[in-house]
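Changelog-adjacent note: as of this version, every example in the card shows the full chain rather than a window. The one below runs 534 residues end to end.
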Amino acid sequence: MSIPEAKTFWRLLEARVAATPDAPMLIDEHDACISFADYHAAALRAAQALHARGVGPGSRVSFQLPTRISTVVLMGGLARLGAIQNPIVPAYRETETAFCLDETKAQILIVEATGWRLDEGGLRERVGHDFVLLRDRDVGIERAKTDAPAPDPQRLAPLSPPDPLLPAPPVDPAAVRWIYYTSGTTSRPKGARQTDQAVAITAAGLVARHRIGPPDRFGMAFPFTHVGGLINLIATFLRGHCLVLLEAFDAEKATTHFARHGVSVVGGGPVFYAAILAEQRRHPERKVLPAFRIFSGGGAPMNAELHYEVLREMGGRGCLHGFGMTECGIICANDVDDADERLAETEGRPIPGIELRIDRSDGARAEAGEEGEVLLRGPAVCRGYVDAAATAAAFDDEGWFRTGDLGFVDARGYLTITGRRKDVIIRKGENISAVEVEDLLYGHPRVADVAVIGLPDALRGELVCAVVTAMPGLPPIGFDEMVAHFRGARVMAQKIPERLEVVDAIPRNATGKILKQVLKERFAGSVVPSVARA
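Full-length structure tokens:
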């Protein structure tokens, strides 16, 4: 597989419309469906409305909208004008949203006409410059009526022929057109500067490794304003398959909606895989997703056993879990033909457009199988951050980006992530990977979800604390049982957690990443009995 020819968003869309204009492109949770030609017309109409509001090449436009057809239409309209887009996940509140607006110097913020949860006054107080607040209806993308079987053609079609005064479509695929903010789970979010070219490379890698084509229906229940939304949008331009959207994830609703529309590929992360698997277990008499082929995602570590559970109970090829981040949406991906051991235990091989290396803690290049920090470079990587200081800290003089993730590459080129550089618990000078401990504990039959954190401890420096949820219908694991489970796995004593906390749910952000800082703040001050260890 080679890197695709560099093209802009708009050129990729036009090529798809020319190839399959009437093929379904988007289906929403109300069963409204539009084709590629419909989408092209709707995006042009949005471009006209936006241009009338002063939006043009280089305009900085933020938007905070749910996963709807209208949101995707807005992205197309802004892309036609060559604006710089800053999609903001709906979970952000006034503080995080204001940070994004401030740093990007956004001139316009677009939100939904009804349902937007933020306080406008509180938001403006936090932003250091003035900006125009528009509602979706102001720019011609108001949501279709929920009782309509399909979007109103008059609402989607241009009100008139394309405005001859519209600027020419952008021509440079390497220009920065998107600013996506990192999840900010441990510090202030950073705005990654993305290009059409970089995102198209990652989209091409995804569809090639997962063999996605026109017959597939791709189920999306994560925020479209995440970089994964753009990757999957451009993927539809490349392959001509259909995206089936859901505004908010609910396992029962997702399986019903996805089954009705023949979804074969479900995107997301391990938290989504596990929830849909649990829904399958609730209905052992039938396949909750009859057309299911694979789970496709990344963004958070996956326990190896989850792949085998999905394989046994849902079929298909199980979990094709990869490695990606806001700065580069798809870094590594497995292939549908890879052995189950690799699907379960590795993140796959780097896609074309990614050069990857592992550096040991002493700065030397790691050998095959040797752990170190993952670095990458290439045209699929973002063009740094909005904050120049953050760019300087993350990229070296040769263009290598330090991911902050720890891992190793085996002799065949497959990457395994072992943890985060900042997710290492240092107990009496011994480095303990939180991910490794999580994987071990997840293997217990009564543990449904797990997060392992380090907590301050006067004796040890840090102690290992396991936070778990119980498998539905089963009693939670006890402390002594947990210790016995680890001892049975024959691991070093330092890796056995000194504390066990059972919770109803483990906090996660909108993309499924565990909010470990929230857990650390919650449990750092409390004292519970623990077992003495070396």
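Structural remarks: The chain is about 30% helix and 25% strand.
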